[in-house]
Amino acid sequence: MTGTLYVKGQSGYSAVAHGYDPRFDSVLPSAVARCVSSADVSAAVLFASTNAVPFTVRSGGHALSGCSTGAGLGIDTTPMSKVAVNSSTASATVGAGARLIDVYHGVSSLGFGTSGGHVRKRGHLRSGDGRRNRFPDPTMGSDL
Ligand SMILES: Cc1cc2nc3c(=O)[nH]c(=O)nc-3n(C[C@H](O)[C@H](O)[C@H](O)COP(=O)(O)OP(=O)(O)OC[C@H]3O[C@@H](n4cnc5c(N)ncnc54)[C@H](O)[C@@H]3O)c2cc1C
Predict the structure, then answer these.
(1) CA neighbours closer than 13 Å in the CB half-sphere of residue 95
(2) Does the pLDDT value for residue 83 go beyond 80?
(3) Predicted confidence (pLDDT) at residue 126 exceeds the cutoff of 60
(4) Nearest residue to 47 (alpha-carbon basis) of 58, 55, 36
(5) CA of 64 to the centre of ligand 1 (A)
(6) Taking a C-beta distance cutoff of 8 angstroms, is the pair 39, 80 a contact?
(7) Whose CA is nearest to atom 50 of ligand 1?
(8) At CA 63, angle to CA 62 and CA 65, rounded to 5?
(9) What is the pLDDT of residue 119?
(10) What are the start-end ranges of the E strands in 69-143?
């Protein structure tokens, strides 16, 4: 893979192993694949499934249930945070690791907003409550 693999006990691991909530720190991954592309994600999933290693995907690491923290391989999409805005089609292509703040900034340049919330470091893909605090007004929003 092009990204970096952080193995438990080695340099850099503790900086990428934890999610947002320390309640879930009792179970940490054996290694974290910090993916920079979809090819990296594919390679990580293939490795885990070929070797019968459990894996967990993580973006913003804010899951309230701890479901992005687990033993085995952590697949972290954080570096895949690009938000590409196309003004001619009024659309945006959003990376799996983009945070809400990245998405807000990206789509606001088009005069759009998105539902989400107020915690800017959360991942954007799993937003669900549809709060409109970052919407231009008046406007209509849709969950991603
Ligand atoms: C302090 C706090 C404030 C919050 N405020 C809001 C709010 O204002 N509005 C709101 O809607 N929600 C809010 N939430 C809830 C939050 O949206 C959810 O917890 C959401 O799941 C966080 O997404 P994440 O990417 O940060 O989490 P993660 O923990 O990274 O991921 C959540 C789930 O998605 C899976 N996943 C992660 N990345 C991918 C991927 N690329 N492909 C497929 N699956 C993936 C993970 O495996 C996990 O099951 C809040 C949570 C916290 C802790």
Answers:
(1) 23
(2) yes
(3) no
(4) 55
(5) 7
(6) no
(7) 62
(8) 140
(9) 59
(10) 73-76, 83-86, 91-94
Domains, the chain, with CATH or none? 4-76 (3.30.43.10), 81-144 (no CATH)
pTM, two decimal places: 0.86
End-to-end CA gap in the chain: 28
Q: Is the beta carbon of 125 within 6 A of some atom in ligand 1?
A: yes
CA dihedral 90, 93, 99, 103 (to 10 degrees): -10
Cα distances from 104 to residues 1, 109, 120, in angstroms, run 30, 9, 9
SS3 (DSSP) at 75:
strand
Q: How many residues does the chain have?
A: 144
H helix or E strand, kind and range, residue 6: strand 4-7
Three-class secondary structure of residue 93 per DSSP: strand
Alpha helices in the chain (DSSP H): 13-17, 38-50, 100-108
* 113 pocket-lining for ligand 1 (C-beta < 6 Å): no
Give the position of tokens 């499934």: 49
